[in-house]
Automatic annotation (TrEMBL):
This is Glycosyltransferase. The keyword Nucleotidyltransferase does not apply. Keywords: Transferase. The keyword Transferase applies. It comes from the Bacteria. Residues 287-392 form the Erythromycin biosynthesis protein CIII-like C-terminal domain. Residues 3-67 form the Glycosyltransferase family 28 N-terminal domain.
């Protein structure tokens, strides 16, 4: 089959699909990944065809301002939809849609008659088991969680409304509200495979048929990939260090965060690796601190004592996969959800909210996760569970089922 995967957002919203796409390609399918231009090298390195989407995936504005976030997200989807149709050519046999692209992809599937399948990185369907992942709220009980879940979907429909209207007009389709299309998909029990581990999110018992949690899809790593020589030297020069990084968060705060990180490491008596990320994290920490750029988690994390991160879905899972504990410093969106999941699992202490981050708080949490064996033991147990999950194979079976019905 000719498969088009569509994903957009930050790197963590795109990179897992490089591994999924490579697995589908290895099974004999032709695979293209449609995403924004900054991620073209990741797509091509995985041996996939790149198709560009014309949207700015960078984050703007104050991450604590929810109205600004909604305006930014709405503009992001409106821009995305204007180019999405160009990425779907006449030979596309199947659309694989991420959480971000599904609200637009449904309409493309309608216009072209192309089958589609959800491949989400976050659980979005309402459930009594937990509150919506994007609200940052604590559990409100089963009834409250479900009510909040429905409200979160309502807000998501509002955000996508402008993009949907523009896209349907371009496709020559009659107007249809975003909420109406969502209800149509729900009634049809449109299938969604969720690319997260049941170690963190067991499939809720109150979900409708067609919603499944299958395990993580991991970013593609070339078989001959190696860590840089200076990092290898650093890793070999002492006990396993701690990695501190904030991924696509905290743009422009690198100097402040770098200084804070060095002070925390010294206070805790630990060696550290600072990962630049969008923050531009850097510091002169002497021989016990090294600053690095983007590196494959799969190569670096097993060599570490712990990870301090923003609790993005991918980084949270990568730490567990490596069997190492974490200190979660959530910033926005779904990050508080994953941070609390790590703590509930026992693989991390209580999260340190980004707004409350100090060198003292970070040093205290680092001291606990590195020196109390229970955290590492919980992470290793999760790693063993994750090795039993066959996430890409589950998608392949779903794809082949769709192929047989065509």
């Amino acid at each position: 089959m000719r498969i088009l995967i569509a994903a957009a957002g930050s790197r963590g919203d795109v990179d897992p699909y490089t591994g999924l796409g490579a697995a589908l390609r290895a099974a004999g399918h032709e695979v293209a990944l449609a995403t924004t231009e900054p991620f073209a090298p990741l797509v091509r390195a995985a041996g996939l065809e790149f198709r560009g989407l014309p949207a700015d995936s960078r984050r703007h504005g104050d991450v604590g301002d929810r109205r600004e976030l909604m305006r930014t997200a709405s503009a992001f989807l409106a821009g995305l939809g204007q180019g999405f149709a160009d990425a779907v050519d006449e030979g596309t046999d199947l659309l694989l849609l991420s959480t971000t692209t599904a609200p637009l992809g449904w309409h493309l599937a309608e216009a072209t008659g192309t089958p589609s399948l959800g491949v989400y990185l976050q659980p979005t369907a309402p459930t009594g088991d937990f509150p919506p992942v994007v609200t940052g709220a604590r559990s409100l009980g089963r009834l409250g969680n479900r009510a909040m879940g429905r409200f979160a979907l309502h807000m998501a429909d509002r955000i996508s409304e402008e993009g949907v209207a523009r896209l349907r007009d371009r496709l020559g389709l009659a107007p249809l509200a975003a909420s109406a299309m969502r209800r149509r998909q729900e009634r049809a029990q449109w299938p969604v495979l969720h690319g997260c581990s049941t170690a963190l999110v067991p499939a809720p018992s109150d979900w409708r048929p067609g919603l499944d949690v299958v395990g993580n899809w991991w970013p593609h790593v070339a078989p001959d990939a190696r860590l840089p020589a200076d990092l290898e030297d650093f890793l070999g020069a002492g006990p396993p260090p701690v990695l501190i990084g904030f991924g696509s968060m905290a743009a422009g705060e690198g100097e402040r965060l770098g200084d804070l990180a060095v002070r925390a490491l010294r206070r805790a008596g630990l060696r550290g690796v600072l990962q630049g990320g969008s923050a531009g994290l850097t510091a002169d920490g002497g021989p016990d601190v090294l600053t690095v750029g983007d590196l494959p988690h799969a190569l670096l994390f097993p060599r570490l004592a712990a990870v301090v991160h923003h609790a993005g879905a991918g980084t949270s899972a990568a730490a567990l996969r490596a069997g190492i504990p974490a200190v979660a410093v959530p910033v926005a969106a779904d990050q508080p959800f994953w941070a609390r999941r790590l703590a509930a699992l026992g693989a991390a202490p209580d999260p340190v909210p980004f707004g409350a981050l100090t060198a003292e708080a970070l040093a205290d949490s680092l001291g606990r996760v590195v020196r109390r064996e229970g955290y590492a033991r919980a992470a290793r147990a999760a790693a063993r569970h994750m090795r039993t999950e066959e996430a890409a194979a589950r998608v392949l079976r779903a794809v082949e089922g769709i192929a047989r019905r065509r």
